[in-house]
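#struct-help
A.M.: can someone run this one for me? Single chain, 742 residues.
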Amino acid sequence: MSAEATNPGNPEAAGRKRGRARLELRGLRRIGRAALLGPAPRDGLPDAMEHVAKVHRGHHPAADLDILSKAYVLAESSHRGQMRKSGEPYITHPLAVTLILAELGAETTTLTASLLHDTVEDTDVTLDQVRDLFGAEVCYLVDGVTKLEKVDYGAAAEPETFRKMLVATGNDVRVMSIKLADRLHNMRTLGVMRPEKQARIAKVTRDVLIPLAERLGVQALKSELEDLVFAILHPDEYAATRSLVAEHAGRPDPLAAIADRVRTTLDAAGIDAEVLVRPRHFVSVHRVRLGRGELTGADLGRLLVLVAEDADCYAVLGELHTCFTPVISEFKDFIAVPKFNLYQSLHTAVTGDGGEIAETLIRTHQMHRVAEAGVIALGNPYAPTDGPDTPDGERADPTRPGWLSRLLEWQRTTPDPDTFWTSLRDDLAQDREITVFCPDALPDGAPGAAAHHTRGRTGGAIGLPAGASCVDAAYARHGEAAHCCIGARVNGRLAALATVLHDGDSLQLLMAPDSATGPSPEWLDHARTPAARLAISRWLAGPPVTATPPPAPGGTIPAPPAAAPAPSAPEHSAPDGPVHRAPASVLAVADVPGAAVRLAGCCTPVPPDTVTGFSVRGGTVTVHRALCPVVARMASMGRRPVGVRWRGADRSGQGCRVTLQAEAFSRPHLLADLTEAIATQGAAVVSAAVEPPHEQRVRHTYTLHLPSATALPSLMRAMRQVPGVYDVLRAGRAHPAAALPS
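D.P.: on it. Structure tokens below:
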């Protein structure tokens, strides 16, 4: 973009260019020469636009070319006199970007904005002028890709520019389509830059733009960007891969012979199909070589079978698996279950007569267009639609994928540019996504429930990066209200919040009915998504403790919570549980006047345990047992402990909550016997979790409400007397000495 515009009186000498990429051929040379001549007469299409118009009409026969001509005239006159560092007139750049998008089938509004995408940034044209001449939609797209000034933002200009583009993309994905095409042309002509600048731009392209192209399904741009980055950042591997491809170019192609046999087979079956040999791009060849070692000619490409209808795809698959020997492990059905970036295709592999394995892709022509161009192939998904299911004038938005929604959620709460930039790269590096079915909703009255229901999130599927845990799912689904999550059921079974989720899992998140809970530090170990990590870190850090707790809504100081009976809370897994508010009858006292106190759910301290505290969000002090592993973790993080003590010597006789773990040999009716032993001691079961048996041993975890802390030793003795139980421990205990004497 503007980095390549130079003063015509002081152009830099053009350096050696790297090989031009596949799409930039005669058309770009033609429009480059035409750009020097300026616009054509008023009643005709400018010469420079002829090739763009021809390509555009190939995808959109009824396209209005007048607005494109008008946009070109403004762009050419605005950029007149500006030169690129390669020595070409600057107008060749927006023309090239427009041709790239036209090749992919972009609609007229996108092409209009691409012609103008640098005018506001590099010329005297203003956004108001663009809006007056071309409308609000084109103005929005141009504004979305306009960079922020370094003069105003300094070192934060690049991350803040990407933040701005992502926010704009959340409303209209065509913003990122133009940015990707812009970066592709700049990468094609990057050879004129200094090597260190080439490397810097290539790294940002690798870390941010290529993952975004993958997520938007624009494989044509992604593949070429990967090869261009590969050549700059790994020149030796690129040269070796290129030589390998050149060596095989003069040899008979085994895929061509298999393709002929496939055509004959499908013709005999009466299936109308187009069979093509599709070469791999250089990065793909390099990856295959790393995985397989020495390559054959069949490894340098794949077969592509194109048909008319979805049903034909499965008919082709049946013929191939009947007439060839299939490699069953290679079969994947992305038609029944599309990828998160709109990609649909059947993947299989068959063996040829000579033993060569031919990877084969089967898809319809429409699927192929979407596979190549992603969201660009959808035309204008934001046009107002009038239908029985869509209110008049409402924008339909089928391209707002889950990953983009998640990204927009956490970026709003990340004001620091460095944190945003690092988190963005980390998020985009997670290149696989899973779908989890989450039918639960926040209970009425829970924090955030009103907003939750307003957003319509009462059930359905959520997308998460591969490797995400229940903690990630909680924050993806409930936002800040996930602080109240106290457990989960995965596929109907109780599961720890640390449980890693898999594609297709059914997840029920168990939420506390009030705001008396919050995340424990262990949640950071289980959080993979930036949204979850940032939210947890903010809650744990909180503002510094002050003598007076922050006022509640309305400006009043919150009173200590009233005593409550043993709650019938949802089940959860105690080791990963949140911090629970202590009943008033067992509140500890912190050495900070006026500070609210919570008892930590990870170790559930009760009198007369030795305890210590740490300040968290809102000036609240969480109380842990001195031997709780979290205490050591907090200390290693540099968190200073706060002195705490039990309030009054008689408090050990009041009600409390505690978590116990029963270690036992697995046997029938163990759960019933333990529950009966607990009930006979007058304790109420708040939650229970049973881990799968391992080597005939099993662990039961119970969170219990006791009428008195003094009842704990006799309760533990009663549980140990249950046949098969060989030990009962306090949760979070570092070693046996941490238990109360029994």
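A.M.: thanks! The first helix runs from residue 26 to 37.
D.P.: also worth noting: The chain has a mean pLDDT of 78.
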